Amino acid sequence: MQVRIGVQFVAKELVVETAQSADEVQEALAEALAEPRGVLVLKDQRGGRVVVPAERLGYLELAEEAGRTVGFGGSQYA
Q1: Environment class of residue 72 by beta-carbon count within 10 Å: exposed (0-12), middle (13-18) or buried (19+)?
Q2: d(Cα 57, Cα 19) in Å, to the nearest integer?
Q3: What is the Cα–Cα distance from 54 to 52, expressed in whole angstroms?
Q4: How many Cβ atoms from other residues are within 10 Å of residue 1's Cβ?
Q5: Integer Cα distance of 12 and 19 in angstroms
Q6: Do residues 33 and 59 make contact, with C-beta atoms less than 8 angstroms apart?
Q7: What is the DSSP letter of 10?
Q8: Could you give the count of Cα atoms lying within 13 Å of 73 in the half-sphere of its Cβ?
Q9: Among 9, 49, 62, 63, fewest CB within 10 Å belongs to which?
Q10: Are strands 2-7 and 57-63 parallel, antiparallel or unpaired?
């Protein structure tokens, strides 16, 4: 799954490829926002972690990975 994170006062968004499900990411976000000085922690697919202070989050965009097409113009081979 791909997670795009908008951080306040940062022009470029963070993009994290994670094996966590959308529900797990949503739960981590809810827990981070519930704490006074909470932090959102996501594990990326390479074993690293992305840590963002919850109070600086602008948005999270969750995108399930779709099958990738092969060839020209999204042919029938996926």
Answers
A1: exposed
A2: 21
A3: 6
A4: 17
A5: 23
A6: no
A7: -
A8: 0
A9: 9
A10: antiparallel
pTM confidence score = 0.76
| pLDDT tens per residue across span 12-70 | 999 999 999 999 999 999 999 999 999 999 999 999 999 999 999 999 999 986 555 56
Q: What's phi and psi for 34, nearest 5 deg?
A: -75, -25
Length of the chain in residues, anyone?
Answer: 78
- What is the residue-wise DSSP string for 18-44? -SS-HHHHHHHHHHHHHSTT-EEEEE-
| Token representation of residue 16 | 């994290």
Q: Closest Cα partner for 53 from 10, 17, 12, 21?
A: 10
